[in-house]
Amino acid sequence: MHVVTTRRQYKDRVYTAHLLRRSYREDGRVKNETLANLSALPDPAIEAVRAVLKGQTLTPFGSDFEVIRSLPHGAVAAVWGLAKRTGLTELLGPACPERDAALALVVSQVVEPASKAAYSTWWADNTMGVDLGLAGAHTDVAYQAMDWLYARKDKIESALVARHLRDGSLVCYDLSSSWVEGSHCPLAAFGHSKEGKRGKRQIEYGVVATKEGLPLAIEVFPGNTSDPASFVQVVEAVRGRFQLQNMVFVGDRGMITQARIDALRQVPGLGWLTALRAPQIKALVEDYSIQPSLFDQANLAEIASHPDYPGERLVVCRNPTLATERARKRKALLDATEDDLARVRAAVEAGRLKDPAKIGQRVGKVAGRHKMEKHFSLDMAEGKFAFSRKQESIDAEAALDGIYVIRTSVDTGVLSAAETVVTYKSLANLERDFRTIKTVDVHIRPIRHRLSDRVRAHALVCLLAAHLVWYLRREWTPLTFRDETPPPRPDPVAPAERSATAAAKAAWRSQPDGTALRPFQGLLDHLGTLTRNTCQVPGTAITIEKLLQPTPTQRRAFDLLQLPIPLSIMSSRQPSA
């Protein structure tokens, strides 16, 4: 027996009938007999009859299932699925338990950055660890996966570079450092710490990225790698590894220094794009290479050749908004310094300070507080203290407000002046990814590994995690506060402006359809509330796996990644992009 639903239309009305029928054979033919008309029954009753006839067992409401376990599923399923869709899974190597464990490390570094020891318990509390058989795995499993992954490092990074860069491409390359816990790592050394960890040994690492900020490769060096010769060795190693004969490195003024440029000049095929430091800009103003008249018609001007910078182009930019802000800040700091000095003068005039040495000590404390002592003349004597502003010094500094100069060895035919400015500003993408790798999402620091190869493997895991985060941030733009349609910038020097859509998102904290917006990490946390529940039929050993009903935001997050919501991460078979 079975239930048949028929629909027929008469004029503007549709009539639906639910009939209970049985099928039988007579004289070799299949015939149907209608046993009852169920149309008068409520829809739930009809569905119950249909389910019973299919062999399903019905139990009273409230006693049908008992949830015996609930595991976070949405976040790990989304990141795992994206790795498959972008082809990263195949890049890691052939399917095997080691690859699954290595990819689990990468996904874990995105969803829940922690130590490898912590993952042995964290994997037991989410569906990824359960599906891969990693729940309760010993820490050695994570280390074995790191060793397996590191053995394939060159192939993985070469494939990523070949996919996203070509010979002659602009390559964003920047160096940073992370401190090391412990004292037995061969790579750890004392060096200039950008993180203020003066008493800690560190390692340095360089990240190769596209100008859009997509990280592709990472190299780890001893913590004292800072001299120009070592930098050129690093550059040569990167170029040789990826078989790129012509490379243009884009870096900030702290990374591509004059000494390093002098070293780069000796290597054919290497170009650079960076910016001048403040003393170099001041020298250009003093020799009249930079004059206010340059900015009468536009906010940028190009100096095709300069005797101090042979073979380079200088693009001089003036940002009026930045100039106004610097003037405001300088005035506030001058006023604050003047107030501090006035209190010292009042103490001297009141007779509380008489000794010139003590007056000098007090002045030294307050004068350097706001870094403005260079703009004041100080006169100290027995029982006397006076000060005044150096207006010439202030005016000289004000002349540089909002001015920055980009220097490059790239010809005009390759990059125009405007394109040079835009390319240099693209470093903001790489700086954002360094923040992602260091603290925001991936947490490369601190380094807790002792063996050099393990440190390099840890850096590779963090790089691959940052690679996935780049895609996640881009695809989930409609669900976060990121600008979906940034307006074009007719003036590359002017500050970027956000679109009306982004302003509305920030004001209302939701999309026009009412979808709540979240920061990126908040969206990952929300996806984690999509759980997979293990349900048991009371009185039996029968269990089934069932997903919690996804929220509209969770469903939208998977739609944006072009992924279904799988019951198991192992069941999501997606073709490579």
Order of strands, main sheet, comes to: 7-6-5-8-9-14-11-10
- Separation of the first and last Cα atoms: 47 Å
**Total DSSP E strands:** 16
Give the overall shape, derived from the CA principal axes: elongated
Keywords:
577 residues; alpha+beta; eight-stranded mixed beta sheet; 20 helices; 16 strands; 41% helix; 20% strand; disordered C terminus
Structure notes:
Strands 7-6-5-8-9-14-11-10 form an eight-stranded mixed β-sheet, with helices on both faces. It has a three-stranded antiparallel β-sheet with strand order 1-2-3. The protein is built from 20 helices and 16 strands. The model is unreliable at 573-577 (pLDDT under 50). A hairpin with a 2-residue loop joins strand 2 and strand 3 (29-37). It is α+β, with helices and mostly antiparallel strands and 577 residues long. The relative contact order is 0.13. 41% of the residues lie in helices and 20% in strands. The longest helix has 30 residues, at 320-349. The protein has helices spanning 43-53, 74-85, 88-92, 97-111, 116-122, 127-131, 139-151, 153-164, 228-242, 258-264, 278-286, 320-349, 356-367, 391-398, 417-425, 427-440, 452-475, 500-508, 520-528, 552-560; strands at 2-10, 13-26, 29-37, 66-72, 170-179, 202-209, 215-222, 247-250, 270-275, 300-303, 313-318, 376-381, 384-389, 403-408, 531-536, 543-547. The chain is elongated and about 125 Å long. The two termini are 47 Å apart. Among the domains are: 2-58, no CATH class; 154-290 and 409-450, no CATH class; 322-398. Helix 2 (74-85) packs across helix 19 (520-528), helix 4 crosses helix 17 and helix 7 (139-151) crosses helix 17 (452-475).
